[in-house]
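Hi C.,

You asked whether I'd gotten around to modeling the 83-residue construct. I have! Everything is below, sequence then structure, no commentary in between.
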Amino acid sequence: MIRHIVQTYPLWIAIVLAARNSALTKWAALPCFVFWLATEIVMPIIVGSASAAGIVDSAASKAPRVRAIAAIATSSLVLVVHD
């Protein structure tokens, strides 16, 4: 919850200005929209690339073998507690 408040905090300046019918509203909102647009474009590319690299690295790993039940249990636990 706090993360969402912090992430949207800059836009609240624009919201307050808009509520007051200020001519500065668009100038307060513009940097937020530019930043969010850049983030929405760049972040999926970064996360997708990192995920693909991780999958390839995991598949090619020469780590010692473990029992299937241990591997499944570990992966399942991480999946359940993941964000």
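If it helps when you're writing up: The chain has one domain: 2-81.

Thanks,
B.
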